[in-house]
Structures are given as C-alpha cells and as structure tokens.
Amino acid sequence: MKIITIDDSSTMRRIIKNTLKRIGYGDEILEAGDGKEALEVLENNDVDLIITDWNMPVMDGLAFVKKIRSDSKYDDTPIIMVTTEAAKEDIITALKAGVNNYIVKPFTPDVLKEKIETVLGKKD
Amino acid sequence: MPKLSVEWINPFIEATENIIGTVAMVKITRGKLTLKEDSAVEYDVSGIIGITGEAVGSIALSFPKKTALAIVTNFTGEEAMGIDNDTIDAIGELTNMVAGSAKKIFSDKGIKLKISIPNVVVGKNHTIVSPKGTPSIVIPFESDVGELAIQVSLKPGN
C-alpha cells in the first residue's frame, strides 16, 4: 500500500505519517509540500491513496484535486482531504471537486483509519 | 458588522480553548479581555493568519517560549528543544487549526470568512500592530504550562 501525504506543514506530514504507521498503513509513505510538488512526485510513483491538505501555497489542495480528477489515470485513486476548512460549504466544494472523503483537523487515529477503510471499500 | 463585540470574539476564544485542549491536551483558562489601541502582545513567538470575507483582519496566537515549547511537545509527541523550524511550523499549524475552527463556528452562524496561510513571527517581546482603524482585542489565557494570548483584529468586510 503506497500513500502520498501532501501538506505544507512538515509537522502535519509527520503527524499523519506517524498515525498511518500506528493504524497499519505505514508500508510506504511519500510526501509533498504542495499540490505542484505532489504532481511531480506522482509522475514517477503510482500510489494507492492520496491524503491532501487544502490551504497550501503554490498549488492548493482544491486545484490539485481538480487536476488529478481531470486525468483518467487516477479515476480509481481515492483522495482524502485533511484540512481545517470545516464549514459545510467547503466540504461540499471539496466533494464536488472529486475528494472521496474529508477529515477536519485535528483528527484522531480512529477517524483516519475509518475514513481510509471507507474510501478503500468504495474503491473495491 | 458592529464594533468588536463579544459575538465576534467568542468564536476565537472557543476555538483556541478547543484546539489547545484537544491537540496539546492543555486546559487553558481565559483572563480579562483588553482593548489595545496600538495592539501589542509581548511574547516570543506568534502565529498569524489573515482573515477576509464578511470581516477583514487577523488572528494571532502568541506564546512565551516556555509555553510554546510545552504545547508543541504535546501536539507533535516529540520534545521541542527550542524555537527551531519544527517548532515554528507547529505553531503555524496550531494557528491554522484555531482559525479554521473559528471559521466553522462563524459559518454555522451564517457568516462567511476566508483564512490565509499562517505566518509565524519569532522575536523576544515582539509586537503585532494592526492597521489603523482596525480594532484589536487581546485575550490572555493561563494554563499549567504557562500563559498565552490571542489577538483578534477585525473590521467589517466589503
């Protein structure tokens, strides 16, 4: 299971990586600091799951998701957005852009596990 | 939007208590609000986020070094040794969570705000000055790991 975590905060990337390891999804975790960097990483790597922040410099999470969803190569790749943007209209915007599930920071390991299992279930 | 009334301050207080309590497991107790004409907090590190939409201004989360290190250590699960890049990043992320949480509280009341990416200022006894005409309120908090404060500077949006 290969996962990419995209967040401009190195703290959040570290917390997400440590949490993924704790809940059994720590096999291979790639990192990127914004959407543009993530697209570059994905050029050379196939991943099974994308976990992305929303508010980031250079290319934000929403623009990144739209870009990914315009490429049929990623039709079956689930995307979970992990963000502080918790307003209802934000969640609707993200889901419309192609996000499969949504987590509001701060989150517990159980919530991340549940959301991952949900999107992987959808994928199957 | 009226002057900086309680309705505009309380979501930030609630968000700060909630986020610091949840991610750093530190219970904080609010002190007395002070209106700052020239808006000064004198701590060592501050996370600042710009706000636009139905209100325009900023929220700053400020800590003395000791409090910052204790809260970041609890937040990340790794001991923060000083105000280094990792601590600065963590303070930015905490500020982001507080602003995001406050934004949600406003959104539930039908008030739409947008928040910027956080900036972090480091420097002994630095001050945060808001633009002229933007009222600013400082809310101090006490906790077992030391004091901290938020500074809310807001005026009506366009």
Spans of at least 5 consecutive residues with low confidence of chain B: none
Q: Return Rg of chain A in Å.
A: 13 Å
Look at the helices and sheets of chain B and give the structural class.
alpha+beta
Instruction: Using the 3D structure, state the CATH architecture of chain B.
Output: 3-Layer(aba) Sandwich
- CA distance, first residue to last residue of chain B: 10 Å
| CATH architecture annotation of chain A | 3-Layer(aba) Sandwich
CATH class of chain A: Alpha Beta
Rg of chain B (C-alpha, Å): 14 Å
Quote the beta fraction of chain B. Answer: 25-35%
Fourth CATH level, the homologous superfamily of chain B: CheC-like
- At CATH level 3, the topology of chain B is Chemotaxis protein chec
Order of helices and strands of chain A: EHEHEHEHEH
Major pleated sheet of chain B:
8 strands, antiparallel
Describe this structure in words.
The complex is a heterodimer of chains A (124) and B (158). Chain A has 124 residues and is an alpha/beta fold. Chain A has helices spanning 10-22, 35-43, 61-69, 88-97, 109-123, and strands at 2-6, 28-32, 49-52, 79-83, 101-104. A 5-stranded parallel sheet of chain A has the order 2-1-3-4-5, sandwiched between helices. The longest helix of chain A has 15 residues, at 109-123. With 158 residues, chain B is an alpha+beta fold. Chain B has one domain: CheC-like (Chemotaxis protein chec). Chain B contains 3 helices and 8 strands; from the N terminus they run αββββααββββ. Chain B has helices at 6-23, 65-76, 85-108, and strands at 28-30, 34-35, 43-53, 55-63, 113-115, 119-126, 136-143, 148-156. In chain B, strands 1, 2, 3, 4, 5, 6, 7 and 8 form an 8-stranded antiparallel sheet that branches. In chain B, α1 (6-23) packs across α3 (85-108). Chain B is globular. The model of chain B has no long low-confidence stretch (mean pLDDT 90). Chain A binds chain B through residues 8-12, 14-15, 18, 55-57, 83-89, 104-106, and chain B through 19, 22-23, 75-78, 85-86, 89-90, 92-93, 96-97, 99-101, 103-104, 107-108, 112, 115-117.
